[in-house]
Amino acid sequence: YGILYLCPTPIGNLEDITIRALNILKNVDIIAAEDTRHTIKLLNHYNISKPLISYHEHNEKTRTDDIIQALKSKKSVALVSDAGMPLISDPGQELVNRAINEGIKVVPLPGPSAAFTALIASGMSTERFCFEGFLPENKKERRKKLDEIKSEKRTIILYESPHHLVKTLQDLLNSLGNRKITIARELTKVHEEFFRSTLEDAIQHFSGEVKGEFVLILDGNHESAEEKWNNLSIKDHINFYVSSG
Ligand code: SAM
Q1: From the CA of 83, how far away is ligand 1's center (Å)?
Q2: Residue 8's closest CA among 134, 99, 111, 116?
Q3: Contact residues for 215 (Cβ-Cβ < 8 A; gap 6+)
Q4: Mutation choice for ligand 1 from 6, 11, 80, 193, CB with most ligand atoms inside 8 A
Q5: Atom in ligand 1 nearest the alpha carbon of residue 87
Q6: pLDDT tens-digit readout, 206-220
Q7: Residues with CB under 6 A from ligand 1
Q8: For the range 71-75, what are the long-range contacts, defined as Cβ-Cβ under 8 Å and sequence gap of 24 or more?
Q9: What is the pLDDT of residue 231?
Q10: CB neighbourhood size of 222 (10 A)
């Protein structure tokens, strides 16, 4: 069988690609890309010319079959997404699972991801953290997720699009209170910026026209047991008395 390489690509600055990743892209038989037009720009920049096939959320199922077939006929394949690590809020899970099941070798390459890049300069604790990707859009699922996040002690990493940024900040404020937050904007690009503040200030700062790409780094819940008790709502108090007889 051929090898399936999982190949990270730059999240903005085209120089953020490893020598190994470039060599793999030069040497594989096929590159499977989330958006071939996007990936062509990267390949042109590095004078790489390769057969490209598209692999995105809408053709993931059928394309997985084609790629597995190619791997079985000894072709090597590199999977890339538009930016950063494939499979991190990006397509690829289906393909990787199938490859593992079929006994095909899967080789991941290290490289950039917006989550880690934002986290390490955020000023928030990097000792323990969790990655939540995009919050669910569905109202009910979103509320459930926000409830879950509320008591999370670890630093929380979220992705958000410019269009939904302020709405998401507002939802976070409503359910978590005025937490500390760092917003990393346009990482590795000319207008890279870190806004280190609170949810309330961030809402003020970003209301109006919002452009760019954003990672949200939220402080974990550091409430003491006593504060937790004092902050319980009346409903929670009643539930407590009812459940403890
Ligand atoms: N696979 C990518 C990774 O490893 O980071 C993430 C893909 S996800 C579809 C796209 C989201 O990642 C954006 O909406 C934004 O939240 C974040 N992102 C990607 N590039 C970024 C950048 N240069 N600056 C800030 N956030 C970025």
Answers
A1: 7
A2: 111
A3: 114, 115, 117, 118, 119, 157, 158, 159, 160, 183, 184, 187
A4: 11
A5: 1
A6: 998 889 999 999 999
A7: 11-12, 81, 83-85, 88-90, 113-115, 159-161, 184, 186-189, 213-215
A8: 71/1, 71/2, 71/3, 71/4, 71/99, 71/102, 71/104, 72/1, 72/2, 72/102, 72/104, 73/2, 74/1, 74/2, 75/2, 75/29, 75/30
A9: 72
A10: 10
Determine the pLDDT at residue 241: 66
pLDDT of residue 227: 76
Distance 235 CA to ligand 1 centre (A): 39
Strand intervals (E) in the chain: 4-6, 30-33, 52-54, 77-80, 106-108, 129-134, 155-160, 180-185, 193-198, 214-218
Among the ranges given (127-141, 189-203, 222-236), the one the predictor scored with the smallest mean pLDDT: 222-236
Reference 48, options 70, 77, 27, 34; nearest CA is 27
Q: What is the pLDDT of residues 65-101, one digit of tens each?
A: 999 999 999 999 999 999 999 999 999 999 999 999 9
pLDDT at 235: 65
Amino acid at 119: L
Query: Tens digit of pLDDT for each residue in 2-15?
Result: 999 999 999 999 99
Beta bridge partners of 180: 198
* Among 38, 213, 216, residue to substitute to test ligand 1 (most atoms within 8 Å of Cβ): 213
pLDDT tens digits for range 95-146: 999 999 999 999 999 999 999 999 999 999 999 999 999 999 999 999 999 9
Say which residue the tokens 């999240």 belong to: 11
